[in-house]
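Reopening: Cupin still failing for me.
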Amino acid sequence: MLPVAELRGVGPDGLTARILESTQPLILRGLVDRWPLVQAARTSQQAADAYLRRFYQGANVVAMLGRPDIDGRFFYNEDLSGFNFFPANVRLDGVLEELEDHRDDERPPAIYVGSTAIDACLPGFRGENDVDLQGRDALASIWIGNRTRIAAHYDLPDNLACVAAGRRRFTLFPPEQVANLYVGPLDFTPAGQAISLVDFRQPDLARFPRFAEAQEHGQVAELEAGDALFIPSTWWHHVEALDRFNVLVNYWWRQSPGYMDTPTNALMHAIMTVRDLPPAQRDAWRALFDHYVFDQDEQTAAHIPPAARRVLAPLDADATRALRAQLLKRMNR
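Support: Ran it again with your exact input. Result attached.
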């Protein structure tokens, strides 16, 4: 695997469109070096713990908890009928106490608070620890835990992941490697996104032989506290938290308007309606999708008067809302 490209000397106010709209992953060394949380974490776990508690006002968080024998890997059970961890709705200060209690365990239980909205859980935190995304409407989340492994998955939004405590290793693959990653069920997942079934620590190439091809196209990012990683939309990424105490702050945003639906819904609907058609019919629908979606340009509807193009015209919020209502009515017949 190749190392992810790096950029140095960029601060929280220096992010540009070239960075935030990149189609390749990019390490931003030292991007958040001066965050107070980063400075506290470099002092000690206790200092970082105390800093986070300054902003905590009692809101519950969802923690994922696993036995020591899962070795930090949040995953399915043996037959993929369930998971090897359980979620718990708990107070954040209780999680911080658990992390401290097990800090010196040789094999601690796996403890992971994932994707928690910062403004709701830690109001005021972003007043001291934030980045300027040049007007992008981003969701800011915090992730806290001990040594954990999150299976390779993709996210629809672009993602800026900032390491605030501990160290992280990201292993990334471009979207076209999906066939070589052996993705599990689409509609039954550990945390909402479909994941690769390959154990990256011990890949079973007898069971997953095409993963060797994926590795040739993979990229690796090793991050210290203060570093950040830009992950483009739909890039697969496997995430390892490498220290006894780890905190990540990430920002998600889309380059498309907020009224657009997630393409995942279109994929699931196509599986339901197109995938199992006879081959000739499936080929016909491939031609229709190419014409109206993937190869669409200004000529696609040029023969129709502009006022009569309806869904073939560029969609705005009102047109999208009307189309969604029409689709729901059809599906509920």
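Residues 279-294 form the longest helix (16 residues). If you still see a failure, please send the error message rather than a screenshot.
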